[in-house]
Every structure is written in structure tokens, then in C-alpha cells.
């Protein structure tokens, strides 16, 4: 039976080829005997039907029990690092973590991993069956730990990596939650004004026979459209929102959004710093765990869909291939501040590239956290001011005819 594999050879180059074996376990053992660090191992056409059936069954089971959340992966990695660091072997550690898993989806996934490891399959190959849960960085670090016999250290690095990714995600959500609530409140207030308040004022103005200024007439007409065709308005809003969500979830939409958002005057600079921190974090973790620089760059490419950063990564890979220094290549990019490029160059010259990348990532993450917190504090009053201005304009437009009527009555 033929198996297609992707691995990293002792020189750090990525290799891809076919190997003949009676089972996936034997194929993995043969590749490890050659000194290859296996990152992916799949059956070819001979076993494709069985593989697809198994994948479909696993997908059906996942849908039935729910999806694996990012915090479940963080908890799994931390528990594995603790157990392996205390001397536990892989299978007993997986069994212990399986019993402590809180979600049914995670329990099922760990059970599948344990069954594969019990059959003699390397952990990195078992993880490759769940690419939607464990990304290329996770699998590569696991494979690096297997090749060096340092699985406790690899899972310690993974625990730190997943924890930091979760923290960044939570900070972003936390910074945007309150402004999003304020925006929704603003739309709710406007809906209440145009749907309930303005119609009552229209009947009042009709009774008084008041002459309406242009701003008041526009608001009354808009209120009539919303009141008479509210179902059409709701369907249009829901359809537009659903269309935008589907568009942004598509690969093309995500690439466009990633590129467009990085060019926004103020927010773009913050987004670029967040992407840069994540890129340096992933690249540094991989290099520090003896993954080849070029392979680490290709894996770090998955941290963003921005074409500008993809161009930077391709430029760095080309520079390494040509034998040029990474620090010099970074200085040529406007996406990387000169001080960071100088820090990478210093780490490269001293043979501590991984440490310098991780140090830069940590510094960026700390600065980004403070920047996001400050930005959130600035956005909140801005939204409140905008809401106050809108409500004030509506109030002025409503009361101006009343003032005119009162003036005429006083003159009479």
C-alpha cells in the first residue's frame, strides 16, 4: 500500500514523496528510521475510499457532539504539558486528560488520538487527522518534540503558544464588545424614534396645522417608510447582514478584508501590529524548537490572509534561500519597524534567532494590549457623542415646528 508523506529532513528541508508499507503505523516507523520528521502522512488512491469514509464518520460525530472550542485546546495542551513534564507517558496522559475534558467533542477527539497512539502512530501523525482543530504550527512543534525526544518541552511550548493566542483573542473581543453594544443601542434608539415617537408627532403637527421645515419633513417621510414597510426593511437589513457575513467568511472575502483593513489610516496600523506580533510569535516558537527557518516561514504564513504580509514572508524565504541575512531582508519591508529588524539581525548574528523573535513578539503583544485598551476608551465616548448628536438633531427637528406654533399663538 502506498502512502504520501510530507516531512522535514535532518538538514531542515521540507520533503514530499511516496512510501510503500502495509499500514500507516509501519510507514511512520520507516520514515522515522530514516531520520525524517513527519508532519503529514496520508494514504494514496488505494486507501482513499476508506479514509474518506472514516473522515465523514468523524465529521458526523463532531457535528453530533458539537465543535471543539479554542479554550478546550488550551486546556488540553496545558494538561498534557503538566502530565508529560511530571514523567507520565503519552497514552496514560491522554487517558487522564480525556477523563477531565469538559466537552463531549473534546472527549471524543482525545479518545481518537489515544486510539491512534496506542496503535503505534506518532502523535504528530494522529494530530494530522484533525487539521481543523490542530493547525500546522501545533503539528510541527509536536513532530519536532518527537524527533528530539523532548515531548514535555514541546507541549510546554505549545501550552504557552495556545495560551497567548487565546489571550490575544480575548483582548480583541473585550476591546470591541462594549463599543459594539453601544452601536446596537444607538440603532435601537433610532429605531424607537422613527418607529414610535415620530408617528405620534406627525398626528400632532397635522392637528396644529404647523408648517414643517425641510429636516422635519425628511424625518417624517423616513418614519412613514419604516412604519409602512417595516417587514421589508427588516428583511433587507437581515439579508444584507447575512450576505456580508457569508462574503467575509469566504476565502476571497477574508483576503480582501485582511488587505483592506490593514490600509485603514488609524485602525490599519493597529491591525498590522497585531498581525506582526502573531507572525513573530509563531515563527519564533517554530525556530526555537529546531524547525527549519524556511519551513517555519511557510507555517507562519497561515497567521494572516493579508497579501502584504504574504509578500513579506515570500521575500524572507527568498532571502534565506539566496543566503542573505534575515535582518537585512526585514529592513527592506515597510511593514517591519527598523528597531525590530535590528533586533532580529542581532539575534541572527548571535545564533539566538528564535529567542529574539519571541522577545519581539512579547513586546508587541504587551504594547498592543495597552493600545487596544486605550483605543476602546477613546471609541466609547465618541460613540456616545455621535448618539447624542443624532438624538439631538431629531429632537431639534421635532420641536422647531412646536416653537413656531407657540410663537404664532403668542403673537395672536
Main features:
412 residues; mainly alpha; Receptor-associated Protein; three-stranded antiparallel beta sheet; 17 helices; 3 strands; elongated
Descriptive overview:
- This protein folds into 2 domains: 2-134, Receptor-associated Protein, CATH 1.20.81; 164-412, no CATH class.
- Helices cover 77% and strands 5% of the residues.
- The chain is built from 17 helices and 3 strands.
- It has helices spanning 24-33, 45-65, 70-85, 90-100, 104-118, 123-127, 136-148, 151-208, 214-228, 230-249, 251-261, 267-288, 293-300, 307-321, 326-331, 338-349, 353-411; strands at 2-8, 14-20, 37-43.
- The chain has a 3-stranded antiparallel β-sheet with strand order 2-1-3.
- It is elongated, with a radius of gyration of 29 Å.
- The model is unreliable at 46-59 and 61-65 (pLDDT under 50).
CA-based shape: elongated
Low confidence ranges: 46-59, 61-65
Strand percent estimate: 5-15%
Q: Give the mean pLDDT.
A: 80
Taken in chain order, the helices and strands follow as EEHEHHHHHHHHHHHHHHHH
Number of domains: 2
Compute the number of helices. 17
> What structural category arises from helix and sheet content?
mainly alpha
Helix content, binned percent: over 70%
Strand order of the largest sheet: 2-1-3
Amino acid at each position: 500500500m502506498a502512502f504520501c508523506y510530507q516531512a522535514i529532513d535532518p538538514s531542515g528541508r521540507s520533503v514530499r514523496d511516496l512510501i510503500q508499507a502495509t499500514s500507516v503505523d509501519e510507514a511512520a516507523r520507516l520514515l522515522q528510521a530514516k531520520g525524517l520528521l513527519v508532519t503529514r502522512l496520508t494514504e494514496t488512491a488505494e486507501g482513499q475510499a476508506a479514509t474518506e469514509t472514516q473522515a465523514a464518520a468523524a465529521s458526523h460525530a463532531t457535528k453530533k457532539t458539537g465543535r471543539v472550542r479554542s479554550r478546550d485546546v488550551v486546556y488540553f495542551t496545558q494538561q498534557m504539558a503538566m502530565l508529560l513534564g511530571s514523567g507520565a507517558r503519552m497514552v496514560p496522559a491522554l487517558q487522564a486528560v480525556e477523563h477531565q475534558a469538559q466537552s463531549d467533542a473534546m472527549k471524543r477527539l482525545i479518545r481518537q488520538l489515544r486510539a491512534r497512539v496506542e496503535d503505534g502512530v506518532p502523535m504528530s501523525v494522529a494530530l494530522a487527522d484533525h487539521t481543523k482543530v490542530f493547525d500546522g504550527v501545533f503539528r510541527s512543534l509536536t513532530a519536532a518534540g518527537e524527533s528530539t525526544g523532548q515531548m514535555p518541552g514541546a507541549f510546554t511550548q505549545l501550552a504557552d503558544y495556545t495560551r497567548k493566542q487565546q489571550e490575544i483573542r480575548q483582548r480583541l473581543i473585550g476591546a470591541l464588545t462594549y463599543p459594539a453594544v453601544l452601536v446596537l443601542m444607538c440603532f435601537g434608539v433610532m429605531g424607537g424614534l422613527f418607529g414610535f415617537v415620530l408617528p405620534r408627532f406627525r398626528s400632532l403637527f397635522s392637528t396644529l396645522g404647523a408648517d414643517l421645515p425641510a429636516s422635519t419633513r425628511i424625518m417624517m417621510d423616513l418614519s412613514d417608510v419604516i412604519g409602512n414597510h417595516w417587514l421589508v426593511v427588516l428583511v433587507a437589513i437581515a439579508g444584507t447582514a447575512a450576505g456580508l457575513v457569508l462574503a467575509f467568511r469566504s476565502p476571497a472575502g477574508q483576503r480582501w478584508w485582511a488587505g483592506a483593513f490593514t490600509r485603514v489610516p488609524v485602525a490599519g496600523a493597529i491591525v498590522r501590529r497585531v498581525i506582526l506580533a502573531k507572525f513573530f510569535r509563531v515563527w519564533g516558537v517554530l525556530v526555537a524548537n529546531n524547525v527549519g527557518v524556511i519551513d517555519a516561514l511557510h507555517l507562519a504564513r497561515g497567521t494572516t490572509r493579508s497579501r502584504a504580509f504574504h509578500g513579506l514572508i515570500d521575500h524572507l524565504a527568498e532571502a534565506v534561500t539566496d543566503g542573505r541575512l534575515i535582518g537585512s531582508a526585514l529592513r527592506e519591508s515597510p511593514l517591519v519597524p527598523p528597531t525590530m529588524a535590528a533586533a532580529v539581525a542581532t539575534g541572527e548574528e548571535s545564533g539566538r534567532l528564535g529567542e529574539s523573535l519571541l522577545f519581539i513578539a512579547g513586546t508587541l503583544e504587551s504594547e498592543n494590549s495597552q493600545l487596544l485598551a486605550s483605543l476602546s476608551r477613546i471609541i466609547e465616548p465618541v460613540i456616545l457623542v455621535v448618539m447624542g448628536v443624532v438624538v439631538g438633531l431629531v429632537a431639534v427637528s421635532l420641536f422647531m415646528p412646536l416653537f413656531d406654533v407657540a410663537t404664532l399663538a403668542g403673537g395672536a
